[in-house]
Specification:
Number of strands: 12
Largest sheet: 10 strands, mixed
Bound molecules: S-adenosyl-L-homocysteine, iron/sulfur cluster
Low-confidence stretches: 345-358
């Protein structure tokens, strides 16, 4: 699945592993695979293997992610990992623990080429695509951290750095591995897109019914062209038609993401236009509202809480389903749109200073 020459620990597929283990008893392939995916173990920890083999595996299958820092907020319920990757790229991963689920937010690219001005990742520009192995390993490393606290990862959202549908093959390779080998339910895997229409159409044809989140942020083309530049290529009508077709396939779920920007897309007229778009889909799309998080390169601020609630109530009264998403990790720049993979000033790792926010 990974196209690079030297596979990483979570990039190698079973056939390549079998080749690597040539000369060993055949059951070793299963043992290693179970070690990697069921026990989330490092080769060094695979005590059912002979020591020499453990050492050989550790060297032949290097980890793809090298920790730079780990930051914690929300009393330990949000953890942001900053990693360095081959070629000196940097990415971030966020683990969020809720009472009823544990979610990992993964990056699909180092940087992003889509240029949405309000997003820290977009402001930083594009570095490179991630491989499937680099995406899967983010989940495994976060799942180990969750396990230390007695928790099991149940959900993965492709809402970290990058546009997943601009790196489709690697993202889909990761989805299959997360579903087939880590055992996550397809519906609990959410791909968030800025609105790459051909990608949405191909997603509808894939065999696994993953959940789709479409980052809408504006419900008329004039405003969306400005906020989300890809709208100039795929306008709202084209996007809505692809969303409708996606929902027409059995078992598919879709939501709209809407970052509320003060005075920009939080007016009564925005709610009216958005509710009308939601009603065009069957079943009507669910809207996730989130006040815009601050980023260094964007002057406008998020809508204050009272008006966020007002906007939600207006949507609901217009027949749309809407919920306000709780913001996580703003103090450690781990919230939506804040991931820029910048190294904090204090690089002593792990960074665990700030645990005082709720
Ligand atoms: N590229 C994909 C997925 C990564 S962005 C996409 O755009 O959907 C994850 C989510 O964060 C998207 O819904 C995006 O619109 C949102 N986002 C970006 N910048 C934000 C900000 N400053 N505040 C709140 N949400 C933001
Ligand atoms: Fe890229 Fe998504 Fe950020 Fe837009 S919002 S720049 S698509 S990561």
């Amino acid at each position: 699945m990974s196209s690079t020459a030297a596979p990483t620990r979570y990039g190698i597929d079973r056939d390549a592993l079998a080749t690597l283990l040539d000369g060993e008893p055949r059951y070793r392939v299963d043992q290693v695979w179970q070690g990697l995916y069921e026990r989330l173990a490092r080769p060094e920890e695979m005590s059912n293997l002979p020591r020499a083999l453990r050492e050989r595996l550790a060297a032949a299958l290097p980890e793809a992610l090298h920790p730079i820092t780990e930051s914690v907020s929300d009393r330990g319920d949000t953890v942001k990992f900053l990693w360095s990757l081959a070629g000196d790229a940097r990415i971030e991963t966020v683990l969020m623990l809720y009472p009823d689920r544990a979610t990992v937010c993964v990056s699909s690219q180092a940087g992003c080429a889509m240029g949405c001005g309000f997003c820290a990742t977009g402001q930083a520009g594009f570095t490179r695509h991630l491989t499937s192995g680099e995406i899967v390993e983010q989940v495994v490393r976060a799942a180990r951290r969750a396990r230390d606290g007695g928790r099991r990862v149940s959900n993965v959202v492709f809402m970290g750095m990058g546009e997943p549908l601009a790196n489709e093959a690697a993202v889909w390779g990761a989805v299959e591995r997360l579903h087939g080998d880590l055992g996550l339910s397809a519906r609990h895997l959410t791909i968030s897109t800025v609105g790459i229409v051909p990608g949405i159409r191909r997603l509808a044809e894939r065999r696994l019914p993953v959940t789709l989140a479409v980052s809408l942020h504006a419900a008329n083309d004039e405003l969306r062209d400005e906020l989300v530049p890809i709208n100039r290529r795929y306008d709202l009508d084209t996007l809505l038609a692809a969303c409708a077709d996606f929902l027409a396939v059995n078992g598919r779920r879709l939501s709209f993401e809407w970052a509320l920007i003060d005075g920009v897309n939080d007016r009564p007229s925005d709610a009216v236009e958005l509710a009308a778009l939601c009603r065009r889909l069957k079943p009507a799309a669910h809207v996730n509202l989130i006040p815009l998080n601050p980023t260094p390169g964007w002057p406008t601020t998020g809508t204050p809480p009272a008006r966020v609630a007002e906007f939600r109530d207006r949507l609901v009264s217009l027949g749309a389903n809407a919920t306000v998403r709780r913001n996580r990790g703003t103090d450690i720049d781990a919230a939506c749109g804040q991931l820029a993979a910048a190294t904090p000033v204090d690089v002593s790792s792990p960074r665990r200073a700030r645990t005082d926010t709720g």
